Amino acid sequence: MPTETAAGAWALVLVLWGALVGGQNITARIGEPLVLSCKGAPKKPPQQLEWKLNTGRTEAWKILSPQGGDSVARILPNGSLLLPAIGIVDEGTFRCRAMNRHGKEIKSNYRVRVYQIPGKPEIVDAASELTVGVPNKVGTCVSKGSYPAGTLSWHLDGKPLIPDEKRTIVKEESRRNPETGLFTLESELTVTPAPGGAAHPTFSCSFSLGLARRRPLNTAPIQPHVREPLERIQLLVEPEGGIVAPGGTVTLTCVISTQPPPQIHWIKDGTPLPLASSPVLLLPKVEHKDEGIYSCVATHPSHGSQESTPVSISTSETGKEGPATGSVGGSGLGTLALALGILGGLGIATLLIGAILWRKRQPRREERKVPENQEDEEERAELNQSEDAEARENDAGGP
Ligand SMILES: *[C@@H]1O[C@H](CO)[C@@H](O)[C@H](O)[C@H]1NC(C)=O
Ligand SMILES: *[C@@H]1O[C@H](CO)[C@@H](O)[C@H](O)[C@H]1NC(C)=O
Questions:
Q1: Same domain, residue pair 91 and 191
Q2: Is the pLDDT of residue 273 over 80?
Q3: How far is residue 296 from each of residues 237, 277, 289, measured CA to CA in Å?
């Protein structure tokens, strides 16, 4: 209490000193009336006084006469100056010179500043979730209709948030309405949450006009949820491709490196398997009923859950000869079987054609001379064969 009293006394001293020496600073709210008193002037006419002003409305000093019907400012019967609705253009200096009852000249000097309190600031585009380690837009604080411009500042958990151009970035913008002269401020906050921070930080923004005795205006707080970035979940299969002989073993391993380790559950053909959490699913002695589509789901208490891409597990009779049926295997195996089948078919066809040609040539061969050696004979046979094949192709090409 004593300190407050002392401060009050000092303020009074300063005000009086200002009034006597440098003039008085007046702040007035836009649109409201302002009355400036002419010190020393008698309360009633006849008075000897002169008001003069230098504001946004006047080019230089303008002298007001008591009788003048000025719409902007009027001298009242008691000598005070009335501005019925003050505006931004009324900012400036007002002076009055009056003769008091004892014939002494008294001067009043006012510096008038106007202000407008904006609407309650708001946070727009507020983030509901922030990700650790990457820059996230928290939101944009908007204040509309202030004069002078004033400032917006952000708070985290009640403490001022100082932009550092690294983890805390604030982008500010101000616009001025050309008609009203009032300001719209925007402040966009981007933060990069550090690992291990609060899961639910509270952000708020406040507007301050920078005038004494004017409390800042606060936005409603926002509380985004901070989460660790989810690693990509991977499902590894052994044997690769997920095809196993009946009675074989399949090992499915769910790989995710988030800390703490998440709960891992398994899904087969869309149905969760009733197993305890484990990153490994072992399928020993695989039989037909084990075939299906498997995936794993990692669940974090705070970060939600993530499912792996599914894999197909199937059995294949690898003991039997001949082409695989292809119905059990995946599409890759089917294609392989088809390719093998085509190749096999081509091989058989070639053999057949060869056999036919061989037979056709048998009688001719007897008429020919006995070749000097076996190699020559084979060479000739090959040449004939290709000639004959060409002839056959030409024949086939006809009608
Ligand atoms: C009035 O404001 C001016 C500038 O804004 C400042 O220099 C001066 O000290 C103030 N006077 C009083 C009495 O507060
Ligand atoms: C002068 O008159 C106005 C309006 O009647 C009043 O508001 C103001 O306080 C008066 N000023 C003085 C110095 O008496």
A1: no
A2: yes
A3: 12, 10, 19
